[in-house]
Amino acid sequence: MRLWEQSEILYRDQIKEPFVKVPDWNSLRANWMTLKRIRTVQRKCNYLLHKWDMADSSLCECGEMQAIKHIAETCPIKMHEEGLTKLHEGRAAAVKWLDELQIRLWLFLSNCVTCLWLEAISNNIFEFLTMSRSTICLFDVDGTVTDPRQPIDPSVRLYLIDKLKKKSLIGLVSGSDISKIDEQLGGPEHTAQFDYVFAENGLVAFKNGTEFKRQTIVDYLGEEKLQKFINFALNYMSKIQLPVKRGNFVEFRTGMINISPVGRSCSKIERDGFEEYDKIHNIRKKFIESIKENLPDIGLTYSIGGQISFDCFPIGWDKRFCLRYIEDEFKGNIHFFGDKTFVGGNDHEIFNDLRVIGHAVTNPRDTIMQLNNLFNK
Fold first, then answer.
1. Active site at which residues (predicted)?
2. Which residue, of 87, 251, 329, 354, has the greatest Cβ tally within 10 A?
3. Angle between helices 92-100 and 29-40 (to 10 degrees)
4. Residue 179, SS3 per DSSP
5. Is 140 annotated as catalytic?
6. How far apart are CA 198 and CA 361, in angstroms?
7. Is 147 a catalytic residue?
């Protein structure tokens, strides 16, 4: 019991004694085992079976990712309508739900020792399998797997997670923070399907959905330099005339500062309009040149990314920063896909890094085409 109390099992607080049947329980052993699998998140569902190549898809009948939490809580077809607390109590409604549930979450093994062993290692099996793959594909987000600042096309997401992941580890590296990546990928449950996610160029790093490293720009610059830089940027933007200006011109992130002359709260139409205006008038390029001229010792470097902004971060903290976490494991087998690979673009440095095999793409469709050419030869 002490191990149970100290564990980080998802539903632990709702279960006082996980191995004791609740009062009045009189159901089949199969249902009791199913309830235990829900309690301990030991799952035989499409999410895991697909990773083991035992199912064609990781999706549920309702179209969402079929993980144990989804089945029990949110699936419009299969969820327990009285909620998880009542399910854990194992009363009549819970027994009925378990009886009718078509998906069995436990493994039909006759050897009890083998069953216990498999249960103990099931959460580590996929990590073991993926570690045997020697290649990783890293993707920029905007313009590479999604259209700029737009949600990912479900067919692109399905291709990356259900098909490519069987052949290579997959990762994302973006200048955006994790909340924006989650938004574009369709939610954190989808972002977590990527083996690695490097938000803010890797200054906030995730592996298998769990954060394992974080760096901050405040610690690097100090408050005095930081305010000097922000004051200069705001003063510069107050003097430039654009077709439109909105709000959120300076966005402070964990490892960088994002500057948007038009303002990040602009609409999609205004965003597209600024991008075309910037191509003619070089608003962002001139802005960066002015910062370099007036603040030569600030210790930052700059890269243009997306449609409306540019990133400012300590020298060496561009997208190459994330490579420190994977270069030893995947030496010579790191593929990077990005659309802003030109000089000054935020994919340029990592695209040209000797540790990386770079692939310049134009949009998500081009990304899929190049992946097919690479892995289906």
1. 140, 142
2. 87
3. 100
4. helix
5. yes
6. 19
7. no
Q: How many CB atoms lie within 10 A of CB 129?
A: 13
User: Is the entire prediction scored with pTM above 0.90?
Assistant: no
Closest CA to 349 of 315, 309, 307: 315
Which phi and psi angles does 213 have, rounded to 5°?
-155, 145
| Cα 128 to Cα 64: distance, rounded to the nearest angstrom | 25
List the domains of the chain with CATH numbers: 29-100 (no CATH), 136-203+319-376 (3.40.50.1000), 219-314 (3.30.1240.20)
Answer yes or no: is 195 a known binding residue: no
- The verdict on whether residue 264 carries a ligand-binding annotation is yes
- Asked if the model's pLDDT at residue 53 lies above 90, the reply is no
Give me 128's structure tokens.
């073991």
* 294 exposure class (CB count in 10 Å sphere: 0-12, 13-18, 19+): exposed
In three-state form (DSSP H/G/I as H, E/B as E, the rest C), the secondary structure along 8-35 is CCCCHHHCCCCCCCCCCCCCCHHHHHHH
Give per-residue pLDDT as tens, 349-363.
999 999 999 999 999
* Kind of pairing between the strands at 204-207 and 210-214: antiparallel
Which amino acid, residue 329?
Answer: E
